[in-house]
Design goal:
heterodimer; A: mainly beta; seven-stranded mixed sheet; 0% helix; B: four-stranded antiparallel sheet; globular
């Protein structure tokens, strides 16, 4: 069990650029979640996958955001035409699949949009 | 929909003193309850969770929490804190109803616990 990994750990970009983050969940975990955390706030749900199917997207996830989980393994979160308001920590978590299962979090990707 | 309120944004305490971090929630359905801890530059780590049964739940690192259904609270306690407990603590809930929001965690704003020598 190597835990959930996220890359890159830090990303600095200019407004208007596109960025992509990657999350590698714990192997054999069926569910994968993305959250966003801004300074002084708790994490907020963005979207989640059951295997390769994206089952829910938060209202926070505008059309500029897209997430994929090809073949139910790793996941990517892309932000197009970044805005300064996108600056945040993006967290990924995975769980085995039952409702009450613990979600295991990665270290996060900190995005700074200049 | 659910919401979680952590009543203290910062809690300073001296080493070996007891501590209580307060959490209240609001939900139209039954929920599971969680406490996570976030150390600097690390991911969130589960401290404990309440699913059913005894309302007093014991977790890692000597922490415990008590579920109070009538007061919709899930306060976290530790009888004697250490310097290493300095971190940010998050209370969270998951709806038992499942559905399209299956497993979605709703977090409070966090409480920064600072343990002074």
């Amino acid at each position: 069990d190597t835990g959930v990994s996220q890359n890159p750990r830090h990303k600095i970009t200019k407004r208007g650029q596109n960025v992509t983050f990657r999350c590698d969940p714990i192997s054999e975990h069926n569910r994968l979640y993305w959250y966003r955390q801004t300074l002084g706030q708790g994490p907020e749900f963005l979207t989640y996958f059951q295997n390769e199917a994206q089952l829910e997207k938060s209202r926070l996830l505008s059309d500029r955001f897209s997430a994929e989980r090809p073949k139910g393994s790793f996941s990517t979160l892309e932000i197009q035409r970044t805005e300064q308001g996108d600056s945040a920590m993006y967290l990924c978590a995975s769980s085995p699949g039952q409702l009450a299962d613990t979600q295991y979090f990665g270290p996060g990707t900190r995005l700074t949009v200049l | 929909a659910q919401s979680v309120t952590q009543l203290d944004s910062q809690v300073p305490v001296f080493e070996e003193a007891p501590v209580e971090l307060r959490c209240n929630y609001s939900s139209s359905v039954s929920v599971y309850l969680f406490w996570y801890v976030q150390y600097p530059n690390q991911g969130l780590q589960l401290l404990l969770k309440y699913l059913s049964g005894s309302t007093l739940v014991k977790g890692i690192n000597g922490f415990e929490a008590e579920f109070n259904k009538s007061q919709t609270s899930f306060h976290l306690r530790k009888p004697s804190v250490h310097i290493s407990d300095t971190a940010e603590y998050f209370c969270a809930v998951v709806s038992r109803a499942g559905g399209t929001s299956y497993g979605k965690l709703t977090f409070g704003q966090g409480t920064i616990l600072t343990v002074h020598p």
